[in-house]
Automatic annotation (TrEMBL):
<dbReference type="InterPro" id="IPR023801">
    <property type="entry name" value="His_deacetylse_dom"/>
</dbReference>
<dbReference type="InterPro" id="IPR037138">
    <property type="entry name" value="His_deacetylse_dom_sf"/>
</dbReference>
<protein>
    <submittedName>
        <fullName>Acetoin utilization deacetylase AcuC</fullName>
    </submittedName>
</protein>
<dbReference type="Pfam" id="PF00850">
    <property type="entry name" value="Hist_deacetyl"/>
</dbReference>
<dbReference type="GO" id="GO:0004407">
    <property type="term" value="F:histone deacetylase activity"/>
</dbReference>
<comment type="similarity">
    <text>Belongs to the histone deacetylase family.</text>
</comment>
<feature type="domain" description="Histone deacetylase">
    <location>
        <begin position="86"/>
        <end position="284"/>
    </location>
</feature>
<dbReference type="InterPro" id="IPR023696">
    <property type="entry name" value="Ureohydrolase_dom_sf"/>
</dbReference>
<dbReference type="GO" id="GO:0040029">
    <property type="term" value="P:epigenetic regulation of gene expression"/>
</dbReference>
<dbReference type="InterPro" id="IPR000286">
    <property type="entry name" value="HDACs"/>
</dbReference>
Length: 450
């Protein structure tokens, strides 16, 4: 398609590459060092960077403080976060800065390791993710711009459970995850009933889709559900968590989306930022899907992008699948329209002025089991501080931590109550935990008793 390439791009686009050629989980693992090799070759072969409106920028290196302003790392940040993880997070931050400073209109961070399965508390890697690059990026933006409204549209085939959890109580962040039904794919979550915490109900929308969904149906979801919701929410910034594993050739999913389908997805969303997440067909999908996303973000024609394995038998999504998708869209439209009438879903119980829930988490990559108790202060002035007890079990002895987390919008009363609790826990309960953590998101402050 090179002869079509340019017409100059309509949108000034920044590309941030960090392929992490020196990092992998294992040589034969889907998340291996050559994962973005063919993508980079394709971009050079197509002459994408010959367009003066499309430019490449180097990533930053995220600081330990930036990681710890999003995550509670156990046993410590140094023990579980590698330099490639810091550069991946820094690549996302650089993309956001380029847009924030108006150096470019849009930016795409083609980075690895991925991050959207990393939760607030991190005991190790799950879903190939250790730290959440896009969440670290957004927390950094919210520190600089406390009133910013942000929308995520996650188009990875796997439910974005980590990003969802980190922003589950934040009414400023709308998180929409479009993914293969969790009954058929890791992480086994992402159902319509997961709609946001108390004070942020309806700010989380999960769209679980049946295997074989295909272009037609995923585009139906975007055009009839996601786009109208984005228009009503009216965010200051739209982020596409751009997982590429919905592609029909991906070895671990079954969604049947094409490269051109991905181009249309981005044309509908009109993201300011895209951050690469999953996608494991490194030769047959990633070069073409990423090319299509780049062209769509730049405002260029992606209609001639065609992957070598594309034929009519690849594309499904008719009949019964279409009916299921339409019913799911109707359910989610109802959740969105009723969001102001519901205080919280059935995940939480109200006990002693706190919303309470228990979670059991599995770190599939590192084979860790975590049991977590989460309490959120019920407050009419802010989203309430969070008190977490976490116990993790694996080959190491059982590890127990406690964490107090102050959200970006934390009111003075909640700050005072959280501070009193922090001092009391340190005085009376230190022996029960490996460490106790204090995290103030607005100030970027993190400290522990260890």
């Amino acid at each position: 398609m090179r002869e079509e390439s340019f017409k100059q791009a309509e949108n000034k686009l920044g590309l941030i590459f960090f392929p992490a050629f020196d990092w992998e989980i294992a040589p034969a693992h889907p998340e291996r060092r050559e994962r973005l090799l063919y993508t980079r070759d394709q971009i050079f072969e197509e002459g994408i960077l010959d367009d003066p409106a499309i430019n490449e920028y180097n990533p930053e290196i995220a600081s330990r403080n930036q990681v710890e302003s999003t995550h509670i790392c156990a046993p410590s940040c140094e023990d579980i976060v590698s330099r490639p993880h810091l550069i991946s997070a820094g690549g996302a931050i650089r993309a956001a800065r380029l847009v924030e400073e108006k150096t470019v209109e849009r930016a795409f961070a083609l980075i690895r390791p991925p991050g959207h399965h990393a939760f607030r508390v991190v005991h190790g890697a799950r879903g190939f993710c250790t730290v959440n690059n896009e969440a670290i990026m957004v927390d950094e933006l919210l520190r600089d711009h406390p009133d910013l409204k942000i929308a995520f549209v996650d188009t990875d085939a796997h439910h974005a459970d980590g990003t969802q959890e980190i922003f589950y109580h934040n009414p400023q962040v709308l998180h929409i995850s479009i993914h293969q039904d969790g009954r058929t794919l890791f992480p086994g979550s992402g159902f319509a009933r997961e709609a946001g915490g108390p004070g942020a109900y309806g700010r989380t929308l999960n769209v679980p889709l049946p295997p074989g969904t295909g272009d037609k149906n995923i585009l139906f979801v975007l055009e009839n559900l996601v786009k109208p919701i984005l228009e009503e929410f009216n965010p200051d910034l739209i982020i596409n968590a751009a997982g590429q594993d919905n592609h029909f050739s991906d070895p671990i999913t079954n969604m049947n989306v094409t490269a051109r389908g991905y181009g249309r997805i981005n044309e509908i969303i009109e993201p300011d930022l895209a951050v690469l997440q999953g996608g494991y067909a490194i030769e047959s999908a990633l070069p073409y899907v990423n090319l299509s996303v780049i062209l769509a973000m730049a405002g260029l024609d992606y209609s001639r992008v065609k992957e070598p394995e594309l034929n009519s038998s690849n594309i499904g999504g008719e009949g019964e699948i279409s009916d299921k998708v339409k019913k799911k869209v109707n359910v989610l439209q109802d959740i969105w329209q009723s969001r102001r009438d519901i205080i919280m879903g059935d995940e939480f119980q109200l006990k002693d002025d706190h919303y309470y829930r228990e979670k059991n988490l599995h770190y599939d990559t590192d084979n860790i089991r975590e049991r977590q108790e989460e309490r959120v202060k019920a407050c009419s002035r802010c989203s309430g501080f969070i008190d977490i007890k976490s116990q993790a079990k694996s080959s190491f002895p059982s590890r127990q931590i406690r964490a107090l987390i102050l959200p970006h919008d934390c009111c003075n009363e909640c700050k005072m109550e959280a501070r009193e609790r922090w001092l009391k826990i340190k005085e009376q309960e230190t022996a029960e935990y490996d460490f106790i953590a204090w995290q103030d998101k607005a100030r970027g402050e993190y400290k522990t008793t260890s």
